[in-house]
Design brief:
It is built from 3 helices and 2 strands, in the order αββαα. The chain has about 70 residues and is of the alpha+beta class.
Length: about 70
């Protein structure tokens, strides 16, 4: 509802950085505005880590490649 009202703006996925299929992840439903933005794959991996073991390692590899690429900047 806050996104529809414009009081809460979705951001990129906090885990992998994509802007596609971003969803709000609530750690604590008593604080509805405190959300983490996660893509649908990372959101699923967050909720059900045993179901998507390969996705976390793929995200880790992507971050390592980016760190290597931009290390001298």
């Amino acid at each position: 509802m806050r996104v529809k009202r414009g009081t809460l703006t979705p951001g990129p996925c906090e885990t992998c950085g994509t802007t596609e299929s971003v969803e709000a992840h609530h750690e604590d439903f008593s604080a509805p505005a405190a959300v983490r933005w996660l893509c649908s794959r990372c959101h699923g991996a967050e909720r059900y880590p045993e179901a998507q073991p390969g996705h976390r390692s793929a995200v880790s590899l992507a971050f390592e490649r980016l760190a290597t690429k931009y290390q001298d900047r």
